[in-house]
Design goal:
heterotrimer; A alpha+beta; B alpha+beta; C alpha+beta; A: alpha+beta; six-stranded antiparallel β-sheet; 19 strands; about 35% strand; B: alpha+beta; two-stranded antiparallel sheet; 17 helices; 10 strands; globular
Chain lengths: ~500, ~475, ~525
């Protein structure tokens, strides 16, 4: 009775205070433009100007040891001013939006631009490149209007369950929203404005045995909070934790390994980062896709057009994809990085694209990508494996050889031994040392592609990398031969 | 210690205080005080400060200053007053920075000793020539130019070289110095060098072909400049006479025809072809200064070089505009200084010789200034606006469509083919070249690309004077 | 082609009607610009009023404990080409209500916003109330003094001429530019000044101004055979100092020695790896990284107790089980934690809970002696303190990068006890007959800190000298074994301070802490080949 009353009271409290919650947590376009007018009014017409006005809101709930540990609501905004005058460059940033702060910030950026080191004694005219694509909608009102109490309620249920099962749960559920207005003016006075807004919601749950005899994790993220369900995430984490208890030590070595999508995403990061035309096309470079110098054409060549990985692999970025798409932005398009195992279109800088290809559609680097799936469910992969391992997560990959992309990292939160087509037991974690290039050439089976969890990028990216402030990844589970586990580790 | 000043926005009236705007900006106002350079811990901090100061003053225009500003000299002296040049550690000295300041305050003797120590300490031949080049450039760019010092530099020969190679190296240095001396109006200085060169050529004729050709070209360049007055006399008669004058020098040197040099003087200038034509209207204001309208309009194609007129053909493309955006986008150094200098020079010449027919010749590259990819006609419009509008070159712009192939397969990078004008002018034209053509369509000047500097400008001016004088006589 | 903008002009101040709600009152703020108040530094008493209003509002809304923070951060970055100044002002309010933590923050310093934040933080805390109340308890404060403190620095970079910093940087670049075999060099230095206000419902009110100066210099050499040797020069790593951090160090001599070392390593032959166990010498920077990851993080009380379970991981040291008894290393291993040491990058007069830092022995004679605690953490292991006759108190480990961030336990500045005899890195090497040396290596640890790998510039040592390079090796270790195999340490003369970066939390926070370390020799570590 008492607890029921309390719940009622606090809900009323919250409804009243929701007045604060939903008002202007992020800047609307018209308000941002109002600030922009003020900034521009203090900016001299000389040279080049870039102004970014961004705002961010984040609400999150953390819990650990079966109790909420922090619930927070944070808001931030930034005005960033970059000036190029006569070959000099200056930058100033403030988060205060009164005219005096703005005037001061502009003044300082200009002073640096004028007094700092020169590259060129001339005022370079630059036209601003613009290309328009629609992109996917990545703003969700459901995310933006999600009430902190709803999280509270779900978290409370999860905690209740772990208490009943004598397990420990910890987790985070968070929502955030961000907007940015990007203004450019070149030395000819030509102006351009970009506007973007996005939301993001993520949830992850770790369930552990109180004595550290087992641990498991599950998580999900999307711009749209309705695309995942906190209870299912928690349920999965419980299931995995129960299956992970009392792991046994087995010998390190090369195993047939089924990597769950989350593990595949981690393993792939360095491969995705290395898929770029400049370098290697601009200079000799220690890149896995450098393929030598052609003296006839006087050009460095990349491995574009060559087979790089298993021919069942397609990797691409599609801004219009409802799951891994990005917000409306002017330099986004579909990029097929790898098609049927062949390197088809590595990422490219706008300048290289323009100068070398005269294309208005640069394959600008994105954080989001998708790998097409196959049709073998993980269960089936297990059934057809005589002896091998299933890995839930690969962590902390560090590249130790750039050319081969050899990496080392650890497994975490779930690794099991398969014997005769069945999960036989949980095993202790390993340090692994493997290259994604090798693993992706050793593929036996490919599962269904599914979205994986990504941490939100914090509040800085929207200011500094407006066009790539979302990270959504969809990859399948894969079964690979001879994945190299180099040593056993004790951590659970 | 100064207290920090923090502006705070207050929405509550009881705390509202109106304040002076200027005061509250102090949060962003980094100290305006000029540091006392001579208090710097390291001498080279002080020296970089002086260099920074110098660059700030001298980078304002492309024309070199005549006198080093007092401010620079004052701070330079202060910095150097605390150091004994003979005891500083050679491998900690940045020759460029130290040299620039030492020369700025006229401590040439000290610089010479410092340089000697540094070059003696070099560990590789690449390092050795690096130092030598730095010193050469410092002397050549010093205010005023240090001809005597450059001359001394000639005697410092690379270590571990054969006597022949050393001699050749020395001669090349001498020619370079002689050319600088000539540009400063010193015609006596180069004479012994020319004599020596001529001797070498005689020796070399029989044996080493390449060696001999290099020598001949150097001697030619020197004589060409030394005998400028004579040359101008011939140019005042006709371009053919001017060519004969040059031919004479060359034949004396080599027993060969002038064609070998690619100088192309006296040759009929090929017709410039291009698909797109633009023009910028201009007029003189009451002070006689050229004023350009910012309106760049398409015009009908016509024959260039314009018959019966003195023509200046300015070949500007490539790095001049297409990659300019990359420079500003990534803060990298770009190579368009020469384009800028060419544009400035041509403006000055046009001011002086109103009848000069100026044509800027470019080609399309599929992009402009880092902007979106463009169709040929769009790009042509941008290029013309850039040179005629932004750089304010008073003249006509001709732009060719560039054909290209692509690397096959998925690579698809473009490889440009030569345009018609590039083909026609092949071997004599690169970006930022200036070619002058007389009223009969004959070339009477062809500037080596990337070398349009003050001295070139005066030579060009003299030539134009000569050619215009003969036209006016007619 | 481009069209000129046709933006709707926004009339300032026209929408005063909506000005009463929402924090981003852009129009209002712009219109009220004339009403900015010049503050007389961070200790201006008017700030106290603003802070107090948020505390009052939160208490009125039902908070049992409130602390409110203001931060004004300035950072000046320079790499010789592109100077950038960044300013950030933040206001954060943290409350305990119904036994749960709630937090709200924004960039606006005003009384109106203060009140909103106070209330909002309570709303956040109460969002957890479904069933029982929370049980967060805080240890008592030993001292609740109020006051004002300025971190003593010789040269405040923000009071200096911009040109002076520029000149220093350019000269340093010139100096490095003369190094033999230099392929590339990069200098990045950042100067930070952060002014903070802290007030709490206990009546404590604190203001302080802190500094952080430092950066990195990367140098890459390549010889005629295009063989490369790369390194990071750590001597300018972040410290709690002003411009003097760079200027007053014998930086050039050290850079020269550093360069000399890189050149010398290029002259060594590359040899293949014979997998096995070898005595191993780590440079002081390598030891600092090792301490930070295998001792620093696992002894943060929240990491140890599982608050980071869903983030970086649960530290392997269980305070309920191991505190005061667990032998982590040989008796040579002694680590203290202290956030008040001069020059430390984490140095404060009060932490972000108003606690004056306490110096603690974290590892004493090889035994885990204490944990790095904030108030909540100290209370959670209070029984241990009581039993061992210690005061149950925070060590001053609460920290938030800005007031916008939630305060949490961040690593203290750590200090390793050096050897009595004054041996240097060279002496330690000289004493090794056969072994390996890792110069400036990187330690990779697992999520609990129990096992790890060390990678980096690796050399074979024979009879006290480096005789060859290994290109393709790594050391794998178990943390307790590694530290128990510690057999040699550098002396007081070899102590060096390194400013290291730490990441933790959800959302992730980045903080810096210093480690004072010495070079060390370990017995029989496992050398492996990569791949």
């Amino acid at each position: 009775m008492v607890s029921y009353m309390r719940e009622l009271i606090s809900m009323q409290d919250i409804k009243r205070s929701a007045l604060y919650e939903n008002n202007d947590r992020v800047l609307s376009r018209s308000k941002a433009e109002g600030i922009l007018d003020e900034v521009v009014s203090h900016t001299s017409k000389k040279g080049r100007t870039r102004i970014v006005i961004s705002s961010w809101w984040g609400g999150g709930q953390r819990w650990a040891r079966n109790t909420p540990s922090m619930t927070a609501d944070q808001r931030e905004m930034t005005i960033s001013i970059k000036r190029n005058i006569n070959g000099g460059a200056g930058e100033c940033e403030t988060n205060q939006i009164d005219s005096i702060s703005i005037k001061g910030a502009v003044g300082l950026a200009e002073r640096y631009a004028i007094e700092g080191e020169r590259f060129e004694p001339l005022d370079m005219a630059t036209q601003i490149a613009r290309w328009n694509y629609d992109g996917a909608n990545v703003w969700s009102d459901a995310t933006y209007n999600h009430l902190v109490t709803e999280n509270g309620k779900s978290v409370n249920e999860i905690i209740g369950k772990s208490l009943r099962d004598s397990l420990l749960s910890a987790g985070y559920v968070g929502t955030c929203a961000s907007t940015a207005l990007v203004y450019d003016r070149d030395s000819w006075g030509r102006e351009n404005i970009d506007w973007g807004s996005l939301t993001y919601a993520n949830c992850s749950v770790t369930v552990r045995h109180p004595k550290g005899l087992g641990s498991a994790w599950a998580g999900s993220s999307s711009f749209d909070i309705t695309r995942w369900d906190i209870n299912s995430i928690a349920e999965l984490s419980y299931e995995k934790c129960r299956a992970s208890l009392n792991p046994v030590r087995i010998e390190p070595g090369r195993y047939i390994t089924i990597l769950e999508p989350q593990a595949v995403a981690t393993l792939m990061q360095s491969l995705i980062s290395s898929l770029s035309r400049t370098p290697p096309e601009s200079k000799k470079y220690n890149s896995p896709i450098y393929s030598g110098f052609d003296s006839d054409m006087n050009r460095h060549l990349s491995k574009i057009g060559q087979k790089l990985v298993d021919d069942r692999i397609n990797i691409y970025h599609d801004p219009n994809d409802p799951i891994v798409g990005t917000h409306r932005s002017d330099i986004v398009r579909r990029v097929d990085l790898i098609r049927k195992g062949i390197l088809t279109e590595p990422y490219n800088t706008p300048v290289h694209e323009l100068v070398e290809l005269n294309s208005k559609e640069p394959a600008v680097r994105r954080l989001s990508f998708k790998v097409d799936g196959g049709d073998t469910p993980v269960d089936e992969m297990i059934t057809s494996t005589r002896r091998g391992l299933v890995v839930a997560r690969l962590e902390q990959p560090v590249t130790i050889d750039e050319h081969s992309l050899l990496q080392t990292g650890v497994t975490r939160d779930g690794i099991w031994l398969i014997e005769n087509g069945k999960i036989a037991k949980a095993v202790k974690n390993f340090r692994w040392t493997e290259s994604p290039l090798v693993a992706f050439n050793n593929i036996e089976d490919i599962g269904v592609s599914e979205p994986v969890f990504n941490e939100p990028l914090g509040r800085a990216p929207l200011v500094h990398n407006f066009h790539d402030s979302m990270k959504n990844i969809m990859v399948p589970a894969i079964r690979v031969r001879d994945f190299n586990f180099s040593s056993t580790i004790d951590s659970i | 210690m100064k207290s920090i000043l923090i502006g705070i926005v207050l929405g509550v009236s009881s705390l509202m205080v109106a304040i002076e705007e200027s005061v509250s900006q102090t949060r962003f106002q980094q100290s305006d005080t000029v540091p006392n350079y001579s208090d710097y811990k390291y001498i080279d901090e002080c020296l970089t400060a002086v260099v920074r100061l110098t660059n700030k003053v001298t980078n304002k225009d492309t024309i070199r200053l005549k006198v080093m500003p007092d401010e620079v000299v004052k701070y330079g002296r202060e910095c150097l007053s605390k150091v004994n040049i003979d005891t500083v550690s050679a491998d900690a000295v940045n020759l460029r920075t130290w040299g620039q300041v030492l020369l700025a305050v006229n401590r040439d003797e000290d610089f010479r000793r410092l340089f000697k120590r540094i070059i003696d300490s070099s560990r590789t031949s690449a390092e050795w020539s690096g130092f030598k080049n730095v010193a050469f450039n410092l002397y050549a760019q010093a205010i005023p130019v240090r001809i005597d010092e450059l001359n001394r530099l000639i005697d410092i020969a690379p270590p571990n070289q054969s006597p022949e190679a050393s001699a050749l190296y020395k001669l090349q240095m001498q020619v370079n110095v002689a050319l600088i001396a000539l540009s400063l109006g010193d015609t006596e200085f180069p004479k012994p060098i020319v004599t020596e060169l001529l001797g070498k050529i005689k020796e070399g004729k029989a044996e080493d072909k390449e060696y001999f050709k290099g020598m001949s070209l150097q001697a030619f360049a020197l004589l060409y400049e030394m005998l400028q007055d004579e040359g101008m006399d011939s140019l005042r008669i006709s371009t053919v006479a001017y060519r004969n004058f040059l031919e004479n020098i060359w034949t004396k040197l080599t027993d060969k025809k002038l064609d070998e040099t690619n100088e192309a003087i006296g040759v009929n200038a090929p017709k410039v072809e291009g698909k797109f034509w633009y023009k910028n209207d201009w007029y003189y204001d009451e002070k006689g200064k050229i004023v350009l309208s910012s309106d760049v309009k398409p015009v009908a194609s016509h024959i260039v070089p314009v018959p019966g007129k003195i023509n200046a053909l300015l070949f500007l493309s490539g790095g001049c505009h297409s990659l300019a955006a990359e420079a500003t986008m990534y803060g990298r150094k770009i190579r368009s200084v020469s384009c800028w200098q060419s544009a400035n020079m041509i403006k000055r010449l046009k001011q002086e010789f109103p009848d000069l027919e100026v044509t800027v010749i470019s080609r399309t590259q599929g992009l402009f200034g880092g902007g979106p990819p463009l169709k040929h006609e769009e790009e042509a419009k941008e290029i013309s606006h850039y040179f005629l509008g932004f750089f304010q070159i008073p003249g006509v712009q001709v732009i060719s469509e560039t054909e290209f192939i692509r690397i096959p397969g998925l690579d698809r990078r473009r490889i440009d083919m030569e345009t018609k004008y590039q083909e026609e002018y092949s071997g004599i034209v690169l970006d930022a070249s200036l070619i002058l053509v007389d009223e009969y369509g004959k070339i009477f000047h062809n500037t080596v690309p990337f070398s349009i500097r003050d001295r070139r400008e005066s030579i060009i001016r003299n030539k134009l004077k000569a050619v215009f004088s003969r036209i006016n006589k007619q | 082609m481009l069209k000129p903008l046709s933006r709707r002009r926004f009339v300032l101040g026209c929408s005063a009607a909506i000005g009463s709600a929402g924090y981003l009152r852009a129009e209002k703020l712009l219109a009220n610009s004339g009403n900015r108040i010049e503050m007389d530094g961070i200790e201006d008493p008017r700030l106290k009023k603003i802070v107090q209003s948020s505390i009052d509002a939160a208490v009125a809304a039902g908070a049992s404990y409130v602390d409110a923070r203001l931060s004004h951060s300035e950072s000046f970055q320079i790499d010789g080409q592109h100077p950038a100044l960044k300013e950030n002002m933040a206001f954060g309010v943290r409350v305990l209500a119904e036994g749960y933590w709630g937090f709200a923050s924004s960039p606006e310093w005003s009384e109106e916003e203060a009140i909103r934040l106070g209330k909002a933080a309570v709303v956040q805390a109460k969002a957890n109330v479904f069933g029982s109340s929370g049980n967060v308890r805080l240890s008592d404060m030993v001292n609740t003094e109020s006051g004002h403190w300025l971190m003593p620095v010789k040269d405040d970079p923000f009071e200096m001429a911009f040109d002076e910093i520029l000149d220093y940087n350019n000269a340093l670049r010139d100096y490095i530019g003369r190094f033999n075999l230099l392929e590339t060099a990069a200098i990045l230095v950042e100067y930070c000044r952060i002014s903070k206000v802290f007030g709490s419902s206990t009546g404590q009110y604190i203001t302080q101004r802190l500094y952080k100066t430092g950066g990195k210099i990367f140098i890459s050499l390549s010889n005629a055979a295009n063989d490369k040797s790369r390194g990071t020069f750590h001597d300018i790593s972040p410290a709690g100092l002003g411009f003097e951090h760079l200027r007053d160090q014998p930086l050039r001599e050290r850079l020269r020695a550093f360069h000399h070392d890189l050149v010398a390593s290029l002259d060594l032959p590359v040899t293949h790896i014979d997998v096995g166990r070898y005595d191993t010498l780590l440079s002081a920077s390598g030891v600092a990284d090792l301490i930070n990851k295998t001792i620093g993080r696992p002894t943060e009380i929240d990491t140890a107790l599982g608050f980071e379970a869903n983030a970086g991981g649960v530290g392997f040291i269980d305070p309920y089980d191991m505190l005061g008894t667990y032998r982590l290393g040989s008796s040579l291993l002694n680590i203290t934690g202290d956030r008040s040491a001069a020059g430390s990058v984490g140095r404060v007069r009060w932490d972000d809970e108003g606690v004056a830092p306490v110096k603690i022995d974290i590892i004493k004679d090889g035994i885990v002696a204490n944990m790095q605690c904030n108030r909540e953490g100290a209370q959670m292991i209070g029984d241990h303190f009581t039993k061992t006759g210690q005061v149950v108190q925070s060590h001053g480990c609460s920290h938030a990068p800005t007031a916008l961030d939630v305060p949490m336990v961040h690593c203290m500045d750590l200090s390793m006890r050096s050897n009595q005899s004054d041996s240097s890195l060279d002496d330690l090497r000289g004493g090794m007959v056969k072994g390996i040396e890792l110069h400036d290596p990187i330690t990779l640890v697992d999520f609990q800190g129990i096992t790890g790998a060390i990678i980096g510039n690796m050399f074979e040592i024979r009879n006290g000298k480096r005789v060859a390079r290994y290109n393709n090796g790594n050391i794998i270790f178990r943390t307790p074994e590694l530290w128990n195999n510690l057999i040699g340490l550098g002396g007081p003369g070899s102590v060096a301070r390194f400013g290291l970066e730490n990441r933790k939390g959800q959302p992730q926070q980045i903080s810096s802490s210093s480690v004072f370390s010495v070079p060390a020799v370990f017995k029989e570590l496992s050398l492996m080949r990569n791949g």
